[in-house]
Structures are given as structure tokens and as C-alpha cells.
Amino acid sequence: MTIAMLIPAAGVGSRMQADRPKQYLQLADKTVLEHTAAKLLALPQTTRLFLALSPTDPYFDQLPLAADPKVCRVAGGAERADSVLAGLMAIDASEFPWTLVHDAARPLVQLSDIQQLIEVCLGSGQGGILASPVRDTMKRGHIPGQGPSLVEHTVERRQLWHALTPQLFPTLLLRDALSRALAAGVAITDEASAMEWAGHPVQLIPGRADNLKITQPEDLALARFYLEQA
């Protein structure tokens, strides 16, 4: 079954405190976005990779990736969910009945994890996400008027998971769920949250914990270390 690959990459990544969006920061010999896109383009299921980019993005056209015939550029939105929806609107669901969405800032995802996600979801006919079980003790905090946060209580971690990407869902169901959730003003942090809100089941497929998302400056250094070890 043909799967559309979608990477929302219109954000500015302000927490990185860099001179450019984090997807265009250098990681070894390529930008973060190039590493991430290369992972999806290496999948045998990939015939089209949709990149939701800022309409004013000055960096993408300078990359060799821009000349790849499998890559289709889409105008992204102000928030991640807006960019994902823009990408979904550009995808022909009759040609691509499933869409796999992956964060631009997760260049370390393993192909074996993606293949496992695809096999489980297509085999069951239900969407799902890569996730890793929470290993640390979890605290719910309360922010007082001033000073540091205070612990309210410890959260039971046995059934808690870190949501990762990729996330894979039927294209039409995801498009409808995301569109309705945004119209209703629901806070959407990933594709699964829109599907959950719409009442659709979401499977948890265990993935590697080193599928980190580059968000802070120290994450980039850790990603470089992992790449060197690989």
C-alpha cells in the first residue's frame, strides 16, 4: 500500500537560540533536515515526500534535497498542526491512503522502527505512533507566584509513554480529525492527539529512546555524538 511521507518543517525553533531554524543547523556533513529526509527517502515505501515549509523559507532551495524528484514542497502554517494539515490537503488520498508524519528535528530515527510501525498499522488497519516507555520518576508540579515549582505529587509511570514520531494514520481520517480539532480550538501537539480527540484508536509501537527531538542546544551535541557512534 502506498504511503505518503510528510515532514512539517516550517517552524523557527526559537529555543535553539540559533541564527536559523533548527532544521537547517549543521549536523556532521548535512543539515538536520537532510538527515531526517534521507531516512524517509531510504524506505522502500517512499514514492513521495511532502515537506511543509515556511513560504518565506530562504534555506531550502540551497540544499541538494530541493532537486530530488520525490520531494514535493508545500506551504506550511504558523503552528506544527497547521503545517501538517496543509501537507494533508496536498496529498491525494486515493493515491496515498496512509500518511506517515515525522518531525524534521528527529534525524536519528531507525529505519527498523519505522518499518515495524508500518507493518503493525497496515496489518491491523489502525493508526499508531512510535513511543518509548517512561523510565524516570514523574512529578506533577505546581508553579507558585514566585520561586521554583513545587511538587504536587508523584505520577505513576507504569502506563506512561513518551510519544515519538513517525506517526502513521489513514490519510482521510487524519485530515478530518485534525481539521475538526483545529476548528474547535483543541490544543493539538501531535497527530495522535487529534485522532484521540476524534475518538479513533491509536496504537503504541515501542521505538528506540535515542530517537531524540532536537529542541535545545545540548540536543544537537547529543545528536552529533550518536551519529559519530553509528
Proportion of beta-strand residues:
25-35%
Instruction: Provide the residue-averaged pLDDT.
Output: 94
Report, as a whole number of angstroms, the end-to-end distance. Answer: 31 Å
Order of helices and strands: EEEHEEHEHEEEEHHEH
Q: How would you describe the oligomerization state of the chains in this entry?
A: single chain
- Major sheet description: 7 strands, mixed
Give the spatial strand order of the biggest sheet.
5-4-1-6-10-7-11
Tell me the Rg in angstroms.
Answer: 18 Å
Content-based structural category: alpha/beta
Count of DSSP-assigned helices: 6
* Strand segment count: 11
The low-confidence runs, each spanning 5 or more residues with pLDDT under 50, are none
Helix content: 25-40%
Shape: globular
Pathway: Isoprenoid biosynthesis; isopentenyl diphosphate biosynthesis via DXP pathway; isopentenyl diphosphate from 1-deoxy-D-xylulose 5-phosphate: step 2/6
Catalytic activity: 2-C-methyl-D-erythritol 4-phosphate + CTP + H(+) = 4-CDP-2-C-methyl-D-erythritol + diphosphate
Family: Belongs to the IspD/TarI cytidylyltransferase family. IspD subfamily.
Function: Catalyzes the formation of 4-diphosphocytidyl-2-C-methyl-D-erythritol from CTP and 2-C-methyl-D-erythritol 4-phosphate (MEP).
